[in-house]
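Subject: Sanity check before I submit

Could someone independently write out the structure tokens for this chain? I want to compare against mine line by line before I put it in a report. The sequence has 118 residues.
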Amino acid sequence: MQKVFGFPALMSLLWLMLLWSPAAHAETLRCNGRATEVGDSRLTVLTNCGEPKLKDSFCAPVYVAPSPQPVPAPIAGLVAPCLQVEEWQYDRGPGNLTATVRFQYGRVQSITYSQPPS
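---
Independent answer below. Compare away.
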């Protein structure tokens, strides 16, 4: 059996994938000594972290298997409405990454960290 990738090549590939990822994913966000986690409500996040620096709300398209295309707008409104998503951005101060908390159905779906916009 012929070896396709050696250990050094695999490690290099993993390292490149890590460097190219646009944001770091996390399970928790610490604010004022309290942890906010995936699954927490908006009220819990407000209590723990206060008002965010920025808030955004958008309607994410709904996909129906097996098609990779979103449901067309006229049909989506009648049959498969879009998914309401909210994103709150927290500026964690100089030298810290910006935290973005994404909500679906009123609960934290994900927490990501990225460089603050310049």
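---
OP: Matches mine. For the report I'm noting this point. The CA atoms of residues 66 and 72 lie 15 Å apart.
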